[in-house]
Known about the structure:
By secondary structure, the chain is an alpha/beta fold.
Amino acid sequence: MSTVVIVGSQWGDEGKGKVIDYLAAEADVVVRGQGGNNAGHTVVVGDQKYALHLIPSGILYKDTVNVIGNGVVFDPEGFLNEIDGLEAKGVSTANIRVSDRAHVIFPYHKEIDRLSEESLGDAKIGTTKKGIGPCYMDKVERTGIRICDLIDEEHFEDIARAQIEKKNAIIEKIYGGEPLDADVIIAAYKGYAARVKPYVTDTSIVVYDAVKADKRVLLEGAQGSLLDVDLGTYPYVTSSHPISGGFAVGAGIGPNAIEEVLGITKAYTTRVGMGPFVTELDNEIGDRIRTQGHEFGTTTGRARRCGWFDSVLVKYSARINGMTAMALMLVDVLSGFETIKICTGYKYGDEIIEHYPANLSVLEKCEPIYEEMPGWTEDLSNVTTYDALPEATKNYIKRIEELVGVPAKIVSIGPKRSQTIVRDKIYRR
Length: 429
Ligand code: GDP
Ligand code: IMO
Ligand code: MG
């Protein structure tokens, strides 16, 4: 057995796509287990940049099998657009497998996502409007339409028509919106079904067989741990389980199949969407991080909120994921800051908080306690060994490891495959 789970340690966009692509060179199978095309994973190969949303980031290696597991919410239109985009760039998509148990996103999910956000006004979540939450709501309500239904030529139309009717009632009566045309949706989805069908299978068997055969399996997390619907900054979260435990359900494997848990961790903090963010820098330092790190969303293009590294948050993430190692990403972005701050605790009134609180009205009032470290001026993007990094950079990395209690086995100093320093092996075998 040699399975590695990749999770986002913070609020997403930590550089998971880059690390998956890097580790996929030696992987047999890469698996997405939750979320949908709300994810935006960037992979840079040479001069070519790939933005992947639903398709696993192992796709750029022709022999790697890429699985979209049962826990994913699947937008067929988005999936087929990605397939077409990849094929146009000469990337083969033959090795993709899609779970027959995954739930399907329909136009009414996107419409309800949009209307619900609009109706929340200032209290909105800031979703990607991809219909993720409404699709997971149907799943939990036990009324969702799965891929096995989508490709079921005998029953699909009836199931879809009944569901569209129900959703139109919600769109019209609750939100005062315009009803959707059932015939148009059904015709489009029948077309998608025909194209999606060849990829569909029972993916839990694919993953199980790979694990049993001692193959290298990479479980590709999407989003970030603080966006987990149970353990994140609820309600400013996504509707799934981006933490390592989410894979037992979302990939359909036993939890004991999970060995290494690699937390992809940004050397600072970013967040897209609303919700509390203790170390946020709503000032020129935050602007500088955003500019140096090109911190604009891969999926929605929104400017990401930026702040200093928060060790309270990442330590929490390490605990809830059972993190065995970190990949410390975008370290190069911090070059040129005279001093760099790390948050080591939260001050809440007269109290010092060391563990991430559940209650957002507490979190909103928390003030960061900072430790200051000397920065470095050197450009790191051409450094090839850990030893060659400036002393100040190594001290910063060491301090993060101490505070989080997990080793940084990978240090990333640029978006390219070559800009990756691996200090210790990730696969056990
Ligand atoms: P993901 O959602 O976790 O896969 O991350 P995104 O792809 O949304 O955002 C990470 C961004 O940082 C992408 O544009 C990557 O190409 C880029 N990136 C990844 N690692 C590094 C790094 O070490 N340095 C720099 N400068 N950029 C990086
Ligand atoms: P990757 O995989 C960053 C955020 C949205 C919003 C909240 C809920 O690229 O790291 P949703 O559309 O999921 O209902 O939105 O979650 N969000 C992400 N933020 N990276 C992501 O994915 C995200 N996926 C969802 O911005 O705050
Ligand atoms: Mg992203």
